[in-house]
Structures are given as structure tokens and as C-alpha cells.
Design a protein that fits this description.
The protein has two helices and nine strands; from the N terminus they run H-E-E-E-E-E-E-E-E-H-E. It is α+β, with helices and mostly antiparallel strands. Strands 1-2-3-7-6-5-4-9 form an eight-stranded mixed β-barrel. The longest helix is centred in the first third of the chain and has 20 residues.
Length: 153
């Protein structure tokens, strides 16, 4: 009798609490697809890797080949930085702080993702408006309790 009561209580507790414990993965909010790879940097600028950002926001990206992040899916959190309060940080183990910010050339980044519109090989323009829109969307989602991720493929 005791054993069956214990089994029943265990099953009952699991049926109530398991759905709260087993949460779904956060939605993939931003996806970075590199259009050039490490072995084939663009044009005359051997430090530049262009990409396309898709998901809930679309624009071009630029990375410095010397500081490329590994492919994978990473959480986005908000922390204070030199760029402002509650600024998106992409959490990647083994890397220092990785951010999304404005810039025009690969030398403007030491591992962060630059957003904008591809101008010519190794450069982007109109970076600030794109960054402002993405940052605002991430902040709005965070205020609603939505946890977003950044996928690099």
C-alpha cells in the first residue's frame, strides 16, 4: 500500500510540475548567415567577412576575420556597456563580451557583429539606424519576458 501511494504521489507531482520545469528553447530571433568564409575573405580587405542577418530583422553584417565567433546558437542578454545601458550581449563561452554595434569596417570590431548595408567589399554603411532598430526590438522583447537567441551558421 505504501509503495503504491509513493508511486501515485511521485506521478502526481511530476504531472503538475514537469510542464513548468521543461520549458521550450527560446525562439531564434536573429540568424547570421556568413556569405563569405574564413578561407575566402572579401576583395582587397582580407580581414572582412560579410554576412546576412535574418529572422525578425534583416540587414547586412560585417565581422573581423581575426575574431570570428564559432557557429552555434547563443543567448542574448542585456548588460550595460560603453554603447549604453541595457545593450545586447551575445553570450559565447570562451569569448569576451560579444556585442551588436555600429561600425563600417572590420577594424571597428574586435569580435562583435557590425550591422548595416553592404557598401563594397569589406565595408558597410548606414550602420547606426540598423543597430538602433535591432537593439530596440531586443529590449522590447526582454521587457515582455521573451528570451532571444542569436544563431551563427
Amino acid at each position: 500500500m505504501r509503495k503504491s501511494l509513493l508511486v501515485f504521489c511521485s506521478f502526481f507531482a511530476l504531472s503538475i510540475f514537469a510542464p513548468a520545469i521543461a520549458q521550450a528553447d527560446p525562439p531564434v530571433y536573429l540568424v547570421l548567415e556568413r556569405t563569405t568564409d574564413e578561407g575566402d575573405p572579401v576583395g582587397e580587405n582580407e580581414n572582412a567577412i560579410h554576412g546576412k542577418l535574418s529572422g525578425d530583422y534583416n540587414c547586412d553584417t560585417l565581422e573581423n576575420v581575426e575574431y570570428l565567433m564559432p557557429k552555434g546558437t547563443y543567448p542574448i542578454i542585456l548588460t550595460d556597456s560603453k554603447f549604453g545601458k541595457n545593450w545586447p550581449e551575445i553570450v559565447i563561452r570562451g569569448h569576451t563580451v560579444v556585442r551588436i554595434h555600429a561600425g563600417n569596417a572590420p577594424d571597428d570590431s574586435k569580435g562583435c557583429i557590425l550591422l548595416g548595408e553592404k557598401d563594397y567589399d569589406g565595408h558597410i554603411t548606414n550602420s547606426k539606424p540598423h543597430v538602433d532598430e535591432v537593439v530596440e526590438k531586443i529590449r522590447e522583447d526582454a521587457a515582455k519576458g521573451i528570451k532571444n537567441t542569436f544563431k551563427i551558421c
